[in-house]
Amino acid sequence: MTEPPTREPTPKPHGATRPGGRTARTRAAVLAAVLEELDTENFTAVTIENLARRSGVHAATIRRRWRSVEGVVVDLLSQKSTTIPIPDTGSLFDDLLSMAENIAAFHASPRNRRLIECIVAAAFSDPRADRLLRDAFGDRIREVSVLVERAVERGEVPPDTNPGEIITALSAPFYYRLLIVRRPIDATLARTAAEMAHHAATAGLFRTPPPGEEATGGAVRNATSDTSGNG
Question: What is the CATH number of domain 78-220?
């Protein structure tokens, strides 16, 4: 009898751990250390050696698991992003508003703002940090997209709506405010971001175009035809 083919194990991302045990304690210590470092040091001054000294974890262990300071920071960002709850209110608008308020609350913390600023700054000069940042945000967008998938099931938005684009539209005003104009994030911004994302979604501006049709042109034409009455 032919034996079934052996399956190669899927490699875990750097910093991935089993719940509990020494591995989890090591990760917690290193992530806490980088957060403390960012409270007192510029990102460029943070080193593996500093993290090893502050966390009590050997530098070789940190390099083996995360490869670089950027890897540790992105792991911390991924961990913290999961603390922002994903609402399920039964209404797309209420879900978007609640999510926007949760994002605003996250960025109310100076530590969290500094974390975002540091990794974005690093991504401009370090290709690896850029890739890690894109992966971290991409993973989070896919997780939060369940809000839109539920709305599609309820018939609140067209079935060919692109969930990731709506979540991106909801989040973008926060990062523009945080990183570009450098102004405080407040409740007004949260409501405005939710209203804009909801209006665009229900108007069909984030529908996935048919093959060969440009996304923007198709979405605008669809939205126009849906809202123009007799045309």
Answer: 1.10.357.10
pLDDT at 3 over 70: no
Q: For residue 90, give Cα distances in angstroms to 11, 158, 196.
A: 37, 17, 19
Whether 13 contacts 77, CB under 8 Å: no
Alpha-helical segments (H) within the chain = 21-40, 48-55, 59-66, 69-81, 92-107, 110-125, 127-144, 146-154, 163-176, 187-202, 215-227
The distance from CA 65 to its chain's CA centroid, rounded to whole angstroms, is 22
Global model pTM greater than 0.85: no
Q: At a CB cut-off of 8 Å and minimum separation 6, what does 45 contact?
A: none
Q: For residues 160-170, give the mean pLDDT.
A: 96
**Confidence grade of residue 37 (pLDDT, cut at 50, 70, 90):** confident
Domain ranges of the chain: 21-67, 78-220
Residues 6+ apart with CB under 8 A from 74: 119, 129, 132, 133, 135, 136
Rounded Cα distance between 164 and 197, Å, is 11
Q: CATH says 21-67 is which class? A: mainly alpha
Q: Cα–Cα–Cα angle for 135, 136, 142, nearest 5°?
A: 85
Instruction: Name the one residue in this structure whose structure tokens are 């939710």.
Output: 194
Confidence of residue 162 (pLDDT cuts 50, 70, 90): very high
